[in-house]
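Hey, weird one. I pasted the ATP-dependent Clp protease adapter protein ClpS sequence into the form twice and got a warning about non-standard characters only the second time. First submission, copied straight from the form history:
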Amino acid sequence: MVTQPVPFVGKAGPKDDDGSRKGGDDANFETGTVTKTRPKTKRPNLYRVLLLNDDYTPMEFVVLVLQDVFNKSREDAMRIMLHVHQKGVGECGVYPYEVAETKVTRVMDTARKNQHPLQCVMEKQ
């Protein structure tokens, strides 16, 4: 929690019998600080979105998915696709949970619609 001082100015001092302050309106002012607490927001956890290699999905399809779902340039998509092909797995990006989940779902749906076994997963960074 973060506390921030908030200035407070108010009248203080003795009162007359009728409830008014002694000495007029300008006399006996008291100043102090009131603190207000605000909850500190936490950064969301980030997740890596990974493509897994298989022996059946065409490389060109993987490049198109990387361009469409992850907004990669043709060159970046080719580099990631080759990395996946050679190493077995490759990182497409790092996102908050909901965004990563959506991207994984889009990749899997696109692969299924095109009858490819391409797998996409996410893992906490």
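That's the output from the first submission. The warning seems to come from a hidden character in my clipboard, not from the data itself. The first strand starts at residue 2 and ends at 11.
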